[in-house]
Amino acid sequence: xxxxxxxxxxxxxxxxxLLFALLEQPYTWKELDILAGETRTPAFLALNPNGRIPTLExxxxxxxxxxxxxxxxxxxxxxxxxxxxxxxxxVLQWMFFEQYSHEPYVATPRFIVRHLPKDSPRRAELPDxxxxxxxxxxxxxxxxxxxxxxxxxxxxxxxxALYAYTHVAPEAGFDLAPxxxxxxxxxxxxxHPKHIPITCRPPE
Amino acid sequence: xxxxxxxxxxxxxxxxxLLFALLEQPYTWKELDILAGETRTPAFLALNPNGRIPTLExxxxxxxxxxxxxxxxxxxxxxxxxxxxxxxxxVLQWMFFEQYSHEPYVATPRFIVRHLPKDSPRRAELPDxxxxxxxxxxxxxxxxxxxxxxxxxxxxxxxxALYAYTHVAPEAGFDLAPxxxxxxxxxxxxxHPKHIPITCRPPE
Lengths: 204, 204
Prior knowledge:
The structure is a homodimer.
Chain A: E1 3-6, H1 11-23, E2 28-31, H2 42-47, E3 55-57, E4 63-65, H3 67-75, H4 85-115, H5 126-144, H6 157-166, H7 180-190
Helix pairs in contact in A: 1-3, 1-6, 4-5, 4-6, 5-7
C-alpha cells in the first residue's frame, strides 16, 4: 500500500488525498511537521532529496515527489486523465500553470499569513505576490467562462491541481467574489459524491 | 505544420526547438519581442491568455502553452517519453522540479542580468534567487552522481527540460565547476548527433 508523507494544511498534499478519495484507493499517511524541519532531516532527505511534501513512497521503496507528478502517476488510466493526446497535454498545461503562475502567488501568501509570525519580514512579499495571484485567477476566470471544467468538459486532475489552493485562497486574504465562474466551478468540484475537504485527516 | 511562438534567448522556447530538432519534425517559427510587450498584445493574448512564450499553434488553430506540456505533447509515443508508468511519472517529477525549484532561480537571474538595465531594482533579487538556484543544482548533482540521464538511463524530455537553463547558467553568474556530474551529463546531452545550440535561429 503506498505511503503518503504529507502535512494536513498543505494544498499540494490535499491534491493527493482528494484523488485517493475519488479513486477509493487505500494508502497510509504520515504527517511531517514542516515548520519544525521534519522535511529537512537526513532520513527524509534520503526519500526526497528536494526535502518537500507531498512525497509518495511505493511498495518497493521507490519515492515519487512533486504533487502534480504524483497525481499523474495515480490517475493515469482512470477517468481523471483523458485518453486523447491533445487533452492530456492540456491537462499538463494547466498543471504547469498551477505550479509556475498560481501556487507561488496564491499558496505562498496563505502560508505566510497562516504560519509565519505576525512580524515576519516575509509579509512584505504579500502585495506583489497577491497581485500576481489575482492575475492567475483572472486567467482561470476567463477560461472557465465558457467551460464546466478545465479540460474536455469533465473533471480531471487539472481541476484537482487548481482547486487545491484556489478554494482556500480566502484564507490568504483573496476575495473570490469577482470571479463568479471560478466560484461555480469550485461548486462543481466539491459536489462530487466522493469529495473530501482539506481538513479531513486520514488515519495514520 | 505547427507554429512556434518563441523568443530566441528563452530557454523555455529552446526546449521545444531542441526537441523538434531531435525528432526531425518541421515547424514554422515566429519570434516575439518579449521586452517590447509583443506577448501582451490582444492578438497574442487571444492565443495564450497567460501571455507567455513558448506557445505552440496547431494546424486547427488550437494553442498549447507551458514549455513542458508542449514537450510532452510532441514527444509522447517517441523514445523521449518512457513507456513505463513509474518512469513517465518520474519524467514529470523532474519537469515539475524544473519549473518550481529551478527555473525561477536559474533562468530568472539570467534574464535579470542579460535583459534588464544595470540599475534595475530587480538586481536586489539576485543573491536570494541564486542561493536557491545553487540548491536546485545540488539536488541535480546528487541525482546524477549515480546516473547517466535523469530517468531510466536514457535521454528523455526531463533532460531537455533541465538542460535548457542549466547549460546557460554561467551567463547568470553561476559557477558550474562544483557540479562535475552535471557537467558530464551536459556533455552527454550535447553529444547527441542531432543536438542544436540555443543560439541556432530557425527560419521564420
